[in-house]
Design a protein that fits this description.
551 residues, TIM Barrel, eight-stranded parallel barrel, three-stranded antiparallel sheet, 39% helix, elongated, binds acetyl coenzyme *A, binds pyruvic acid, isoleucine biosynthesis, AIPM/Hcit_synth_CS, Citramalate synthase, Aldolase_TIM
Length: 551
């Protein structure tokens, strides 16, 4: 039996790029397109050639520079202008010139938009769709019509929106994507409208009962927080083409998150949407796209977020220990993600045992040790430590409880940090004075390592930086591996802020050796003491993992 076609259509490079703050270069688009292809989408909407110079350039270069295995490129544009002819419209010609095999036309299907935004008659609105589709199909292009404001238009004047859809299909469009342009629909509304439309067009219900190659599609925005649900409702009601963006990028609150849609369809509804292993690679691909867009991935994003399969509550861990599926909706590897245990004051012994396993320690059957570590974590968290963001500090506690001691790489004799703020030398603005003062931070560290007493003074643009420099220089003499360590992130949080300048401070430090990154935590009465503790943990953990023996 032939399988009914199902289209996955990506618009990250066009509608996704309409997100506030996103500005994709041609090189960015050329780098993202192969990732989308690797995911396995069938269509990549590259942009609007003729309207946006970068997009014209993208199509010119994409034809020569990228090879797509699964996807075809779609050029996006609008129907001809009112009162013109499609073949004369420079914007329509630019779509042809892009040489994209698919052209997607945004077409007004809400009569209010035709009359008020296009300032033309309802009949001319329909003619604009018909002429433009006919012209492009005549030129050998596959045409998708994005029926803009379809759902709002349908609720206002169903007859007109239906005429727009019929005109598009009669003129040769392969797909009409029903757009919730303003993103305000609810799933039941979408389901009802798609069902009613299909019935009125004589399309039997069921995905594989569509006449010929004509498909209805769904293009959802997330303004009501229902974009994923609306897309699934549309598919349930008979749409067989879904549009969306990776990571849900898009104007305002974004477009539908395409990965979540295809994962739901494939893993929950048994609709195979992507060829090959695309879904199992989707976490890596979503994060790789985020690197290029330079927008930090959202940890709580369904399926691909870093927290999507992270478990914090002790009771969850105790059940997961028996069977992970008791607390997860899918096997995370199906989307290339991982289950993680978080250690915090909500941990129980099972959390510690599973976290230990994740870190490479078999703690099964060590009840006493698990109780000791659990109690220590809870006590430390009560003082302000947080281990769910500082795995490395937790591992040092675990090692200490396992062996009865911490590795003795060095012994600190004393340290101090000074910030000289007197007399900003520029004698100028407060900011310039502050800059001068920061340049004067100085720290001295005295420690014992490798049988020596080492005294080093470091300078930095602030006291923590100066301490970091001094500690690093002192330790490098005995442990040259430390040269590779680099502090990449530093976060400060004032706890019990109502104490004012007397409050407790927590510092989280992220360190890398170029290959791995680890996080440590320190708590103290001030930022310098808290940072010092986090820095010490960072160096000890780094040395342990570099396989270095204490000297
Ligand atoms: C729902 C969506 O997100 S669709 C995608 C929207 N994306 C973009 O707008 C990004 C790219 N846009 C652009 O670069 C510019 O807006 C352009 C080049 C398309 C048009 O720019 P301008 O010629 O300066 O026109 P402007 O943006 O002010 O107005 C849009 C024109 O298109 C017309 N228009 C709007 N939608 C359609 C449509 N579906 N079919 C035909 N014409 C349309 C409007 O009536 C208006 O015509 P007018 O100039 O005769 O008044
Ligand atoms: C076409 C489109 O992006 C929309 O209607 O939202």
């Amino acid at each position: 039996m032939a399988t009914a076609p199902f289209h996955v259509y990506d618009t990250t490079l066009r509608d996704g790029a309409q997100q506030e703050g996103m500005n994709l270069s041609v090189a960015d688009k050329l780098a993202i397109a192969p990732l989308l292809d690797e995911l396995g989408v069938g269509f990549i909407e590259g942009g609007w050639p003729g309207a946006i110079p970068k997009d014209t350039e993208f199509f010119r270069r994409a034809a020569k520079e990228i090879e797509l295995r699964h996807a075809v490129l779609a050029a996006f544009g609008s129907t001809r202008k009112a009162g013109t002819r499609a073949w004369d419209d420079p914007q329509v010609r630019a779509l042809l010139d892009s040489e994209a095999p698919v052209v997607t036309l945004v077409a007004k299907s809400d009569v209010r938009h035709v009359e008020r935004a296009l300032r033309t008659t309802p009949d001319e609105g329909i003619a604009m769709i018909r002429d433009t589709v006919e012209f492009l199909v005549g030129e050998g292009r596959r045409v998708v019509v994005d029926a803009e404001h379809f759902f709002d238009g349908y609720r206002y004047d169903a007859g007109y929106t239906r005429s727009a859809v019929v005109a598009a299909f009669e003129a040769g469009a392969e797909v009409v994507a029903l757009c919730d342009t303003n993103g305000g629909m609810l799933p039941s509304w979408v389901g009802d409208v798609v069902t009613e439309l299909r019935e009125s067009l004589g399309m039997a219900h069921g995905r594989d009962a569509l006449p010929g190659d004509a498909l209805l599609g769904m293009h959802a925005h997330n303004d009501s927080g229902c974009a994923i649900a609306n897309t699934l409702a549309a598919v349930d009601a008979g749409c067989a083409h879904v549009q969306g963006t990776v990571n849900g990028y898009g104007e305002r609150t974004g477009n539908v998150d395409l990965v979540a849609v295809v994962a739901n369809l494939a893993l929950k509804s048994g609709i195979r949407t992507l060829p090959g292993d695309g879904l199992a690679e989707s976490t890596r691909i979503a994060h790789a796209v985020a690197e290029i867009t330079n927008i930090a991935p959202h940890a709580r994003q369904p399926y691909v977020g870093a927290s999507a399969f992270a478990h914090k509550a002790g009771l969850h861990a105790s059940a997961i220990k028996v069977d992970p599926d008791l607390y997860q909706h899918i096997d995370p590897t199906a989307v290339g993600n991982d289950m993680r245990m978080l250690v915090s004051d909500m941990a129980g012994r099972a959390s510690i045992e599973l976290k230990g396993r994740e870190l490479g320690f078999d703690l099964a059957g060590q009840g006493e040790l698990l109780t000791r570590v659990t109690t220590r974590v809870k006590d430390a968290e009560a003082q302000g430590y947080t281990f769910d963001a500082a795995d490395a500090s937790f591992e040092l506690i675990l090692r200490e409880e396992l062996t009865g001691d911490r590795p003795h790489y060095f012994r600190i004799e004393s340290w101090r940090a000074i910030v000289e703020t007197s007399g900003g030398r520029s004698g100028g603005t407060p900011n310039a004075d502050r800059r001068d003062a920061e340049a004067l931070a100085e720290a001295t560290v005295k420690l014992h390592a490798g049988g020596e007493r080492i005294v080093v003074t470091g300078e930095g643009n602030g006291p923590v930086n100066a301490l970091d420099q001094a500690l690093r220089h002192a330790l490098t003499r005995v442990y040259p591996q430390i040269e590779k360590f680099d502090l990449v992130d530093f976060k400060v949080r004032i706890l019990d802020a109502e104490h004012g300048t007397d409050a407790t401070t927590r510092v989280l430090v992220e360190t890398t050796d170029g290959q791995h990154t680890w996080s440590t935590v320190g708590v103290g009465p001030n930022i310098i003491e808290a940072a010092w503790e986090a820095l010490i943990d960072a160096h000890v953990y780094g040395l342990v993992h570099a396989g270095v023996d204490p000297r």
